[in-house]
Specification:
- The chain has a single domain, classed as Metallo-dependent phosphatases (Purple Acid Phosphatase, chain A, domain 2, 4-Layer Sandwich), CATH 3.60.21.
- By secondary structure, the protein is α/β, with parallel strands linked by helices.
- It is globular and about 65 Å long.
- Strands 1, 4, 5, 6, 13, 14, 15 and 16 form an 8-stranded mixed β-sheet that branches.
- Helix content is 19%, strand content 28%.
Length: 421
């Protein structure tokens, strides 16, 4: 909804007579949204203005202690759809232990994640147990070991609100939440009880509190039970506005909203996506993370005027309309590439305790799912494309692979910037 208060101390000195002075009291201005910087550029410096010390007739008076502002920074990274189609499992099953190990999927991107403070993924499959049968499209269910693999790679938070949330019914939601929490991940977007639905997800890193929420356009026609409407957060603008307000009131310095929306396999956002993203930023979101199309869509900067903002102050947010597939078995053109999207958050706290949080330094790291068939089994590795091309030392990649990946990367980089003015 709105960011921290900016307080400006206005002092007026009126000389009435020799050795006589007085000053006006300060008046706080109305709160404003968290201002944001331009992509890959530091935000313009801003801070409170303090009045000089008042004149005193005492010879031993001391000037006020003016401390420099405290500055904290933290980095957010986000990836798109984590999916498990049936061909992805056989190569990672250990019959002796009756377990799965999917950590090799993420070994090339884990070093990138380890450098970030928050890492968010869209978990687009239930983790509901073998007794409910592991299946891929159209109704997914994957082994709980996937949560362990994500956690081991450096992912910390998972959006669980998407069109596959109900693929194993309400039981699947309850079990998925239990399994991701047992792995040490923080889920948001689905709930196992009314009390669970009231929780606010605020994760603090380096003194910066990030509030998170997630919503989906629907659940593939699988109805959410009438008595359990709390189970899946759907895209509803009044509810989103209220949720952001609650996060701000609870102390969130910035807010990230994950939205599962758009048209599958379309590389540009549709009008509805653009309108919803604008409304969510107007409601106070600083970051909008899109998923569902299974291909990467561009990012954009959204400027909201004071007249359109929920708090009556200008606001600026960044949206990535679709992060694409992070891991899946989809191999059609543009479906085997995804994006690690990043921003830096900077919180400036003045000596009087007032603070403001800004975002800048957008980073774009395209990824590719490399698939290789060996002895009738398929093996998967997520490759950071630019790093892999520069290193050119992966024995699993052919010259043709490198050529195709180079062309994809060049096209994708232009595509990502295509909406930014």
């Amino acid at each position: 909804m709105r960011g921290p208060r900016k307080t400006y101390l206005l002092a007026m000195y009126l000389s009435v007579g020799l050795l006589t002075a007085c000053s006006a009291t300060s008046s706080p201005l109305s709160p404003s949204s968290s201002p944001s910087g331009k992509p890959a550029a530091s935000p313009a410096p801003s801070g409170s203005v303090s009045a000089p010390p008042t004149a005193s007739s005492s010879d031993d008076s001391k000037p006020e202690d003016v401390r420099p502002p405290e500055i904290n920074t933290a980095t957010l990274l986000a990836v798109g759809d984590v999916m498990v189609h049936s061909p992805q499992l056989p190569a990672y099953y250990d019959a002796k232990s009756n377990t799965y190990d999917m950590s090799p999927w993420f070994e090339r991107v884990a070093p990138i994640f380890m450098q970030a403070d928050w890492v968010i993924a869209n978990l687009e499959t239930p983790l509901a147990g073998a007794d409910l049968k592991y299946t891929g499209f159209p109704r997914f269910n994957a082994p709980a070991e996937l949560a362990d693999a994500l956690k081991g790679a450096g992912v910390q938070l998972v959006s669980t609100a998407n069109n596959h949330s109900m693929d194993r019914g309400f039981t699947g939601i309850v079990r998925t939440l239990r399994n991701v929490r047992q792995a040490g991940l923080v889920p948001f977007g689905t709930s196992s009880s009314p009390e669970d639905a009231e929780r606010l997800v605020i994760e603090e890193r380096n003194g910066i509190k990030l509030g998170l929420l997630a919503c989906t356009y629907g659940t593939n026609g699988i109805p959410v039970p009438e008595d359990k409407k709390y189970a899946v957060d759907l895209i509803d603008l009044p509810a989103i506005r209220e949720h952001i307000h609650r996060l701000r009131e609870a102390g969130a310095d910035a807010v990230s909203v994950s939205l599962h929306f758009g048209t599958e396999y379309q590389r540009m956002p549709n009008e509805q996506q653009i309108a919803i993203a604008h409304d969510v930023v107007a409601a106070g979101a600083d970051v909008v993370l899109g998923s569902h199309p299974h291909v990467v869509q561009p990012y954009d900067i959204i400027e909201v005027s004071a007249a359109d903002s929920a708090d009556g102050e200008p606001h600026r947010g960044v949206v990535i309309y679709s992060l694409g597939n992070f891991i899946s078995n989809q191999s059609e053109e543009w479906q085997d590439v995804g994006l690690i999207f990043g921003i830096k958050l900077t919180k400036t706290t003045d000596a009087n305790g007032e603070s403001r949080t800004e975002w800048d330094a957008i980073s774009l790291t395209p990824t590719k799912v490399h698939m290789q068939r060996v002895n009738k089994k398929k093996y998967y590795t997520i490759l950071p494309m630019e790093q892999s091309i520069k290193a050119h030392n992966n024995p699993k990649l052919t010259a043709q692979d490198y050529t195709r990946m180079t062309k994809q990367l060049e096209s994708l980089n232009k595509h990502l910037q295509s909406l930014v003015k």
